[in-house]
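Reminder to self: tokens first, then the designed residues, so the page reads top to bottom the way the pipeline ran.
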């Protein structure tokens, strides 16, 4: 008989190294090819697909690949090409400093900003965005460390929404010295994932803003997570968002649906 035994309390099954918590990441690729992924050490078996169909609806997928000293992982955003229109007929818009509003669109294509709150600036710069481009814009804003009130406008929004990510790829070189903070979590005890409801600046480190988003409607993390960065151990994961629930209105109330589905 030949049995190489081990004590029952010793972990002998190893797999992928997974991590949870808020970490700082470099952006190393956007919608890479299979060869580019292999060069990064990500050994997928087939060419990645950036056109996806979910429940009969077609989406474009924007995938930012993030890397730190522990993991290389993907941050995926689904985009619906075309204007994002709510059930009430309003159009989701951003202005050039990153403020967003649901606005009525006139027959001439202009947006009615007469009912915008007083704190909204640059009212003449509003432009329509496809659904999902708000997440991309907020990611770039955190990554580029744009100050509040600073300009944050991608020039090729419609092209990006249709799969042309040249502008986003150019940012990898432009922002090579920058990092973005993101919350990593684990789904089904085996899949590494990134929370897409909030991205943070490196300085200051505002963990509370991640928790604030988690407490909003549709903001829950769909997996196991921690706030502090750590190696994933299922028995050690605890819910550590002790912040009280926030009663705040959301632009998503215009649609009445879960805007994100899967993170």
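Designed residues (263 positions):
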């Amino acid at each position: 008989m030949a049995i190489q035994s081990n004590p029952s309390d010793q972990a002998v099954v190893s797999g992928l190294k997974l991590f949870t918590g808020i970490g700082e990441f470099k952006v190393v690729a956007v919608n890479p090819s299979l060869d580019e992924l292999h060069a990064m050490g990500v050994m997928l078996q087939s060419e990645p697909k950036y056109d996806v169909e979910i429940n009969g609806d077609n989406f474009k997928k924007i995938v930012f690949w993030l890397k730190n000293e522990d993991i290389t992982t993907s941050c995926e955003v689904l985009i619906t090409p075309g204007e994002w229109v709510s059930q009430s007929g309003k159009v989701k818009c951003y202005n050039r400093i990153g403020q967003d509003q649901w606005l009525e669109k006139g027959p001439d294509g202009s947006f009615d900003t007469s009912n915008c709150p007083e704190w909204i600036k640059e009212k003449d710069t509003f432009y329509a965005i496809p659904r999902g481009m708000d997440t991309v814009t907020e990611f770039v804003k955190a990554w580029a460390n744009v100050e509040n009130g600073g300009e944050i406008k991608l020039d090729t929004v419609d092209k990006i929404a249709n799969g042309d990510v040249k502008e986003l790829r150019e940012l990898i070189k432009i922002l090579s010295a920058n990092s973005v903070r993101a919350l990593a979590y684990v789904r089904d005890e085996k899949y590494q994932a990134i929370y897409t409801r909030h991205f943070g600046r490196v300085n200051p480190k505002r963990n509370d803003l991640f928790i604030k988003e988690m407490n909003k409607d549709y903001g829950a993390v769909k997996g196991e997570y921690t706030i502090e960065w750590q190696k994933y151990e299922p028995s050690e994961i605890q819910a550590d968002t002790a912040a009280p629930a926030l009663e705040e209105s959301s632009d998503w109330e215009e649609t009445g649906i879960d805007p994100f589905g899967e993170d």
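The chain has a mean pLDDT of 87.
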